Amino acid sequence: MSRHHARKGFTLLELLVVLMVLSITAAAAVPAFLANAANGPERNVAKALAEELIAVRDAARESGTPATLALSPSDGRYWITTRDSASAGVLPMIGGVTLIGDRTDHTDRIELRFEPTGPSSPTTITVHGAHDLTVRTHAWTGEVTIDDGHAP
Predict the structure, then answer these.
(1) In the prediction, which pLDDT does 1 show?
(2) Exposed/middle/buried for 152, CB within 10 Å: 0-12, 13-18, 19+?
(3) CA 38 to CA 58: how far, in whole Å?
(4) Which end of the chain, N or C, is less packed with Cβ atoms under 10 Å?
């Protein structure tokens, strides 16, 4: 007669396999969480602003006439005027984010004009929050960059 013992618990090999699977999963998930943490509210505002500036620049190039974006830094409202249309919107100003223009006349309006041939009003807008980011437009090319010179 052979007696079979009821198996209780896990073997060391089974525990090691489970720990290995968990560590691989954690190693894949941590970079995603860190990247999400780096995208704070000021980065979201800077990206939204850059996207609007790029849309205005592209509208000027497509229409063959100048296009303008007027921005109110106090509340993030903006107005876009192209040859035959106008539109308005609001940037996602959340998390205590504020906008600071490079103008010294202390007006509550920043105006950027894009020419159809490429040039634009050279402008620097600082997105102020936990970290400061800078959105710039290049005078000769109309290129829009965020912070360290990389295109959005």
Answers:
(1) 52
(2) middle
(3) 29
(4) N
Please indicate, yes or no, whether the overall pTM of this predicted structure exceeds 0.90: no
Count of Cβ atoms closer than 10 Å to residue 53 Cβ: 27
Q: Do 112 and 119 form a contact (C-beta atoms < 8 A)?
A: no
Q: What single letter denotes the amino acid at residue 63?
A: S
Annotate 33-98 with DSSP letters as a single string. Answer: HHHHHHS-HHHHHHHHHHHHHHHHHHHHHHHTS-EEEEEETTTTEEEEE-SS-EEEEE----TT-E
Is-contact 122 137, C-beta < 8 A? yes
Tokens of 84: 């035959």
Structure confidence by residue, pLDDT tens digits, 50-99: 999 999 999 999 989 999 999 998 888 999 998 778 889 998 888 788 88
pLDDT digits (tens, 9 = 90+) for 94-119: 878 888 887 655 567 889 899 999 88
Cα–Cα distance between 93 and 42 in angstroms, integer? 8
Look at residue 70 and give its three-state secondary structure: strand
